Amino acid sequence: MSADREPARSTAPLAAGAPGTSAGAAATSPSVSSPASSSPSLPREQRLEPSGRVARLEHDELTDSGVMLSIDGAEQSHVEVSDPSFLLHDYTFRIASACTTLGPLTPLTSLHTRTSLHTLSVLHLGAGALTLPRWIEAERPHTAQTVVDYEGGLVDFVLDALPMTCAPRNLVADAAAVLEDGGELAGERFDVVVVDLFNGSDAPEPVISADFFATLLTALEEPGRAASPHTLGDGEPADLDRSLLLLNLGDVPGMAFARSLVHRVVTALAKEYPSLSAWDHALLSAPADVVEAEAEGNLVLTLRPFRAIESRESEVLWAAGPHPGEVLTGDELRTWAEGPADAG
């Protein structure tokens, strides 16, 4: 499934509690022109191991300083070299909005003056061109980031052409095993885990299994376990219970795969934390025609195990866009997930 080539309608994910934008907010993407003079020397190609697939970086004609990563000709990522906070693709914008609205990644510009602030940690399963790590670096500097990808050399290839000020820790590993006993990240905890490993019903079973999702949930930082205090300068405690698990799901009209996977993930949450009303801790965000099962596309599923998602937060997330879009949580999400498997 190729990436959405239309720019997201909004370009600055809202912080929690920020005023919402209108549903028809106009796009404000960088202007289309020839690549900026500061752009890297492209195109570049590299054959990856162990798959043997070919990664290619080239200028993206949609924006002024955009660079596109493709693998074997299929687009994977877009990076705006002059402004990493700009997110072209719909699903990356929705992930970023969830991180700021529902999660702990409130941009520093919206926080009070601080004397002490917990260093947040983010795990990315699936690297691409490091679009989201670059956005996090721009919006919340000093966040500790770890990237896991199975393709040896991909991250080094990308960073050689498109360096970051603070490159993430880079592990070449199997995402399905990296957090398990004996894995490279066994026992580590993260404030945010982002899963961007598959884009349709042909996903490998190890990364869509109930056991995999249970392992991801146990890798989230729990309230009270942080090594350093979550405090702001005026002594007000920062949120201790906003750890997030985010998954990028892709599917075709009917959404049979996405529906079943959402149900599997929320069931894993309910099993891991039996006292929860699990559907109130899950939220789905996607373009309206995708949610309505009428179009192919990507959906972002967010789980927040340690605090239920409030209606006010859902409204802020919806207002952030892109539009037209839908946000489902609670009973609405359960009804959607339990829809007919042969829909469409």
From TrEMBL:
<protein>
    <recommendedName>
        <fullName>Spermidine synthase</fullName>
    </recommendedName>
</protein>
<feature type="compositionally biased region" description="Basic and acidic residues">
    <location>
        <begin position="44"/>
        <end position="59"/>
    </location>
</feature>
<feature type="region of interest" description="Disordered">
    <location>
        <begin position="1"/>
        <end position="59"/>
    </location>
</feature>
<feature type="compositionally biased region" description="Low complexity">
    <location>
        <begin position="10"/>
        <end position="43"/>
    </location>
</feature>
<dbReference type="InterPro" id="IPR029063">
    <property type="entry name" value="SAM-dependent_MTases_sf"/>
</dbReference>
